[in-house]
Amino acid sequence: MNKNKVVLSFPPSKVEEPIIFHLIRDYDLMVNILRASIDPGKQGRIVVELTGDDKQLSQGYNYLESNGVGVEPLTEEIQHIEERCVSCTACVPVCPTGALDVNRDTWVVSHDPERCVVCLSCVDVCPYRAVTSFFQ
Ligand code: SF4
Ligand code: SF4
Prior knowledge:
Number of helices: 3
CATH topology of the largest domain: Alpha-Beta Plaits
Radius of gyration: 17 Å
Distance between the termini: 25 Å
CATH class of the largest domain: Alpha Beta
Number of strands: 8
Low-confidence stretches: none
Oligomer: single chain
Helix content: 10-25%
CATH architecture of the largest domain: 2-Layer Sandwich
Bound molecules: iron/sulfur cluster
């Protein structure tokens, strides 16, 4: 199984169509929506993590592209700036994947990029701007 984090760009004419539903039902892909910005009648943007084997992913991408949905790899990442972080732990409960966690012995907060799904929840809650997003 492969996991791909991608950005899907929907043209206005496709925003209200059940494209994600078809990805799951017809191509047997697991779809984890990380962020979504959709307004009926306007262009939509969804950040998703797709899980499937090579064939499922390839067929799913073909389906998306044949429907005019743009697919780009997610190049946004989270940076945890340790010099700014005071380990207040405000970000730990909002992190849905445990990527930000606190060591129970030292009470130091750390970030594991492998577990991060770039949902940006931590960026909004950190009072010290110790987590920021950037594009590679
Ligand atoms: S909210 Fe900010 S300062 Fe507090 S632990 Fe998280 S990253 Fe560090
Ligand atoms: S962006 Fe922040 S809150 Fe979201 S998964 Fe990554 S570390 Fe956790």
